[in-house]
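Quick start: read one record
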Amino acid sequence: MKQFALASFSALVLLIPAACHRSEPVPQTSTPKEQVIETTVVHGGQTTSQLVLPARVVANPTRTVHVYPLISGRVLSLSILPGQPVRKGEKIGTLQSSDAAQARSDFEKARIEAARADLQLARARDLLAHDVMAQRDYDDLKALDATDHSELERARQTLHMLGFSENSTSDIVPILAPISGVVLDVGTGPGELQRSLDNATSIATIADISSVWIVGDLYPRDQASVHVGQSATMTVNGYPGLVLHGVVDNISDAVDPVTLTLKVRVVLANPGLRLKPDMYASMSLSGAAHNAIAVPSTAVIRNGNAVFVFVQTAPGKYERRNVTLGETHADTYEITQGLNDGDAVVTTGAELLRESEDR
């Protein structure tokens, strides 16, 4: 028993030094700063500047008509609704007017006077042929006859303009569409009294939107980069993925006192009438191509008035580089000064480098 205990103790004594000299390998890890830093090599290249303007769809005002009654009266009926297409000359409503009776009375009086003048002129012609009437008196009657016929023609045109036939006896005036287009607005209803052009509100507004304007708001500071004939790309809210192309047709000469912007106009065809007046849109204008170095926006650090990036000069070594920014895009900045072609710019972890530098 004593021999067994002694042997066990000897074995334990032999194991202790071995355990004391054994060591676990220590893993080699990089510093936290190096783990989060990412770089990208930047290169110079040709890029095109883009100016994006808020815009909206506008109906061509030269193809937009506010319908007013030609004479005063009471609206009896309207057969149009906003958004409804109409054709030129189509009856869109009716108006009952006492002025219609006056127009018809003027026409009848003019017709009677013209007929009487014709009879007088015929007698005078016979008298002149038999040397009973002087030439001067005949010429006076001939001029009077021409005057009466001129008055008759005026009265006839007034009837036709009001939509009446010469033999009509009705006091109901048809309201006709002056152009073909789409009804944008209806400003009255049956029973309402219309006082011809004295009304502040029109019966209806009709516009031909087979072609429309895209009007963008341009701040005067950007005026130098926009010119007539410049290519433009438009997108319209409500039609995702639809891209429209055109050219700048006009730049206004006066600043809008409300928005303090100039109006940039692009004229577009509107097949299918998809574009509706007052839709919101976006207008992108392409500028001249130029050389620049573009870096991700995450690489640029701002500190007061200073703008800089970090450039990798050697493995694990980084240099702060002051830069001058050019145009700003969705997720990149153009660098006009401070970087060279082939520089390795820190894109992730730049803030961490700045903090280490400040310490």
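Residues 1-30 have pLDDT under 50 and may be disordered.
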